[in-house]
Every structure is written in C-alpha cells, then in structure tokens.
C-alpha cells in the first residue's frame, strides 16, 4: 500500500504561512486594458479586468471593490456598474427550490441534505434582513431567489462538491414579452449547485452582496448583473480548536462553526483531549467523566453534546474532524486509568498491562468514531518524548522482555494501533508530520498527513 | 419646584467606585454560630449564618457557596444541605402560570407585560436545558415550575416592582396524603412576584441554581429546600454604551442587553450621539443619515432599529435610557446642519440662526422621545468648553446683541432648552453632575443627576 499525502493544494496546514489560502490574493495582478468587469482566479493566476470603477480610486484596496464584497474571492466573477442595482422585498423574500432539480418540498421523506438546505434558507433570511423596514419601502422589489440543486442525497465529507454558480440580473433584462408580474415571478437571482452544500456556499456569497441602504430603507444589490462561478481551491479548509488546554462551552463552539460558514471554511478540527484535560464523558470508561475536567467546574462534553455539535456543523456545511492525540499527549488519560501509563503518569505505556492499554485506546476510538461521522479521524502523533519510556522502570523491563531495542518502537506501536483501529472502522487516519519524519513508508497505508512544524 | 436628586442608594453612578452595588459583598461579615443556613442582606448589613458546608472549606470564596450560586446576592436566602437535591425533566419541563394570579393564557387579549413573560419562559428553557439528554434520564424528575404574578399590566419603567420570591422544595416535603403522581403534579418550584418583570428576575435566579450533572445526565438543584426573597437594592442599575465613539452593531447591542438580564441589571444607558459621530437616521432631518456616520461604511440606526432594540430590551426586563449630550458633545451635528454651530463647527451655537438651532434641538428630542418609551431621557450637559463660544466671532456678536454677559449663560440656555423640551413631553430629564455644580438650584425642577466625576 502507498500513503496518500495531501499536498498544499488540497489541505490547509497548521502553522505553515507559505500555504495559506490567502496566497491567491498575494499573487494577484491586475490589468485595466478592458472595459468589462471580470474576475478570474484559477490556478493561482488572478486576472482582474475592470472598468468604470477602477478609475475612481487609485488605492490598492479600493481597486478590488466590488470583487471583495464576496469573501473569499470567487474563482470567477463578473458584474455591472455601480448604478445598476436591484432591491429585495424583505417582508416576503423566499428561497425557492427549482422543481426541475432535487429537494422539492413535495419529495417526501426529505433527505437530510435537503433538510439542511431548508434550514439554511431560514438562517440566511434572518442574517440578510437584519433591519426592520416599513412595509411600503420594498413594494416593487424582488421577492425570491431560485435555487437549482442537482443531488438530494449528498453526504458532507471530504469529497463533497461545493461548487456553485450565482447569477443576479436586473428585472429589465428579462424577456420583454413577459408582463411586469411575470418578470417578478421569474425572478432574477438564480443559484445552481451540484449539492445542497454548494447551494449553501452560493447563499453565503449572495448574502455578502446584499447591503442595507439607510436612506431608502431597502436591501440592495449593486453592480448587477453578477455572474459568479465558484468552487473551493482547497478541499480541506479547517480551523483547529483545542478543548483540552482550555474548555470551550458548547455555545462557543457553535459560534465558531457559524463563523466558519461565513468564511466558507469547511472543517472544524476538534483537538478534543490532551495532557491538560480529558473533557469527554465516555460511555465505556465513565471514570473519565470524574477525572478529566479542566477546572473545578464540571467541564465535559457528553456523547449527546458531540452528536449535537456534529449535526449543527453539518447544517452549516462544516465537517467535524476529531483529534485524539496518541501517544504524546495522553497524561490526562493516566488520571482516570493509571495502569495504562508510566509510573510518572505522563504518557501511555504497555508496561503494566498491555492488553488493557490497547483495549482502552481501541474502545475509546471506536466509541468516538461512532459519534464523529466524518471519514477523517485525526490521531495526532506529534511531540512524543520517548525519554519518558526510557526513564520508566516498568517500561524498560517490558522492552527487555519483548526484545524491543528502542523506545521509538513503542511510539510506532501506538501509532499503528491507533491507525489500524481507525482503518478497521472504515475511516481515514490523519496524523501530524512527525509520524512521517519518524516512520515514513513503514506507516499504514492511506494515512493523511498534516504539517505543523515549518521545518518538517 | 425642587430638584429630585437620586442618591447613591437609588442610582448606579458612572465612574464612582465608592457606590458600586458590589459594596454589599465588600462589607460582608460571617458568623458560624448557627446551624441554619440563612442569608440576609439588607441595609448593607449582611449576616451569613451557615452550617454544614462552611466547615468543608476554609477559603474565603468557598465560604459563600452556595449563596453565590445566585448572583447578585439575593436579599434573603435559605437553603438545605448539599445532599438534598431535586432533578428537572428536561424533555417536558414547563413554566406554568398560577391561575389564581394574572397572565393566564385564557385571558385574551394578552397584555404586553404577560406576553413578555411567556417569551421569557421559552428563552429560559433553552438556557437552562443546554444539553441534549437521553429521554430515560429524567423520567421521575420535576416537570414544571409554578409562577404566580399579581399584576398583568405593569409598564417596565423606573418605578416597576421587581421583587420576587422563589421556593424550591423536595418532593418528599409535600403532604404525605398525596399520591406520588399528585406530588409531582403539585410541583415543588414556586415563584411569586408582583409584576411579570419581577417574575423574570425569579426565573433568572432559578436558572442559576440548576446545574447539569454529567455523570447522571440530569439537570439538578442541590441544597433544597431553597427559600429566596429578593428585590433590587438600587432601582436604577445601568450599563452605559457609547455608539458614537465606536459604532455598535445591533447584534452587539442585543448581546449586551441579554447579558444585562443575567446580572439583573435593568437599564441600558444608550449614549447615542457625540462629537465623533451621529449614527441616527432622523426622519425630520434626513441629512444626518448621510453626514453622521462613524466610518466609511454606512453605520446608522434607523427609527425601526431603535424600536426593535427598545422592545428587545423590554422583553429582557431592561429599560433603554437614551442620551443626547447637549451642548458639549455636539460637533457631529455641525456636519449635517452647519448653521446651528460655531464657525469652527465644534459646538452648537445660537449665533447664526437661533430659531433654527432651537428647532433642531427640539425636533430631534421630540422624535427620539417617541422611539425611546422610557420615562427617563438623558441630556448630558457635561464637559462644556464655553471658550469655544468666547472665541467664535458670531457668537460674541450674538451675546452683545442680546446683552448676554457670560458664555456660561449660553450653556445654561441649551441645558434649559433640552430639559424644558423633555419635561414638556411628559418625561424626566437626566443630566451629568456638571449641570448641578454649574447651575445648582437654577435648573428646572424634576431633573435627575448622574455623577461621573469623583470630585463633584
């Protein structure tokens, strides 16, 4: 077997500034040779060709406007002049599913993916129409956006299609044979996406184009017509949270997930436990729920909490990738089950009871794997101080008894145990770069690596 | 007429640490001579008599537990031992209005005050039951709290009664002639309040006593029976926000109001405009909506925004007291209507057009007075640099023409104009301490003063 190593084109790395997604901005070049307004950002080659607005400002930032109204920058975008605008009817505006595609309301029972999209409709209506307006102010404004979705049963995972197109046209561009009523009914905001999660990205982009105009008290989109074709440059766009070094309340995690969706980030990397604390109430090992807390307050996540967070994230188009960092960050495990650790209680060790140690690792990973539904499961593997085993009398005895010549082999055994468990559960193990620098191709196949050290 | 000056017993002052509400904590003394658990905080004399728990800890903070589970400290509280606890049924728990009092669901149409309370029920159920639990875990737990409210039509204003009592008894304390079913139906959480806003304070206290127990996955109240009788020590407990020196989005203001309700604070003092910006879209003077913003983004509050915030606050038992700081903090007015200011555009002046200047002050205050429904309207009056008038050629001419010997009289004229306007509208003018130190008893009657300077 060979190792699948996602390169910087496919994964956002921890702590490596050279691979930031914002690269696409840093390498932007511009040309004003054309009067059409086209943004084309592909293969790290950004070509901006803009017209009337460019000349109105010489500052670098202003030259991006109105491209930068949608953030991150779409792959392709074109737009009209500032004077051409449409308004939206705040009181009656609706997202309407195109009946030629998936997710019609009449299709019962509704799939989870479609249900997630309908919830997003409600969420975004509250986000977009964030001012109460007099009912008269948007009488003749557009009252719906049309959404075409191709597939109704997409699972949000590392391979989900997030591409979308968004077209916003002025009413006058409709066929002149239509009555005024028909023009409004036909609508002039069209979204098209392969999956419901792509449609959510489109709605996020749309929401960023809508501005409240205080003088007229209307919700406006300027620079129509807009034509946006977009897809993520990186399939994996994550933020890492660490609930061990400091406990994060559920409301904080939900708030972070909501923010991720605004930035079209798609992965919450949840570094759940570490040396500092083990804030998870395990079903198989309930003793963690008394011995793992960060402070004197009870600060834990239950199984139900995790299920809730994973569902909340999915509804926002965000995957949750758990991390259980084995074996280098496990001293909190020792408080609950001392026999699986060295005498110093600083790290897992097979010395006292190898069977028990392996069982605890296996059972915890299996239990968590059922709660975190994503295909990726991060197993850490960084910063392992093998000296902790070399200095532990029982571990040294164990190594002699089993003819283990180097404590680095203990390290490898734990990495393999963790990876094999996750592979056996049908998932993809993820690990920090040190497992590659230490063990290279001797690792199990199918491991995804993440760098956090710049020199690695 | 005489001036009503609220003393430190009745109002929370700005920037004066000696009058903080937390005084009641600083002066706390304790005695462990009794085995009953009674907290009695009245007239700055806090007597804590606690029993079994005290001996379990010698630290100062721990000695307050479990008194400090409710914060701010209730006026009177007694409680049982840690071992006596009840659990709540998360899946079916309801706040139930006692039919002997006001706010029954059958009483149609429901008053605003009762409707606010029902909304609070929904809000607090989400706050209290903040973990999903397996349905089996709270089968035999208490499923409702009974709420008796005396008056259905209370207006939230400076004189509203916020007192309440809260009793939480264990099921076993019910009459032994009741069946198990009846015991549960009778309930053992009772709230009694004069007004719906007092009932909200009771529910806030109740919510602070409920803790999630991770090992059993139940919502528990320990130390029953609880008997709490509480009322605010200060009728006016405010937080000042300043939306001029920095714009605050509506979502931020809502978040602040929610936080105030957790701390049983009851006034949001909204310092709306100042020299820096005038973020209000006036109906009478629409030019402010183009000339008053803080930054290049459109950052304003519309009339509808203010109505929404005032309603949101009222639903949380929080009054909104607006402040228009006249005449010392008005340079932002000059950008929109230059003729009402000195030539330096730094402060209001009657010199160019006294009628217009007076009209603008009067009309703006009248317009805002309709939106902010509270009886209190703050008119500032602090930090007036009379030298700005002495150095303004037109103002000096105006003073000579009208035989005004000192620019301090211009200051007084503006203060009187503002106060008279608010009094004429049937409201109570509030002002900063300088108007008292400068003008004392020559002020209009019925003015409420707030100190912000320690030496004043």
Automatic annotation (TrEMBL), chains A, B:
GO BP term (any one): ganglioside catabolic process
A single Gene Ontology CC term: membrane
Catalytic activity: Hydrolysis of terminal non-reducing N-acetyl-D-hexosamine residues in N-acetyl-beta-D-hexosaminides
Compositionally biased residues, Polar residues: 1-11
EC category: hydrolase
Pfam families for the chain: Glyco_hydro_20, Glycohydro_20b2
Active site positions: 383 (proton donor)
Residue intervals passing through the bilayer: none
Bias-annotated ranges (Basic and acidic residues): 13-23, 39-48
Chain positions covered by the region annotation Disordered: 1-60
Hydrolase is among the record's keywords: yes
InterPro entries with a match to the protein in the record: Beta_hexosaminidase_sua/sub, GH, Glyco_hydro_20_cat, Hex-like_dom2, HEX_eukaryotic_N
Domain Beta-hexosaminidase eukaryotic type N-terminal: 70-209
Residues annotated as domain Glycoside hydrolase family 20 catalytic: 234-453
EC numbers: 3.2.1.52
A GO term, aspect molecular function: beta-N-acetylhexosaminidase activity
Gene3D superfamilies: Chitobiase/beta-hexosaminidase domain 2-like (3.30.379.10), Glycosidases (3.20.20.80)
Keyword entries, A-Z: Glycoprotein, Glycosidase, Hydrolase
Bias (Low complexity) ranges: 27-36
Family according to the record: Belongs to the glycosyl hydrolase 20 family.
PANTHER family: BETA-HEXOSAMINIDASE (PTHR22600), BETA-HEXOSAMINIDASE A (PTHR22600:SF21)
Name used for this protein in its record: beta-N-acetylhexosaminidase
Record organism: Ditylum brightwellii
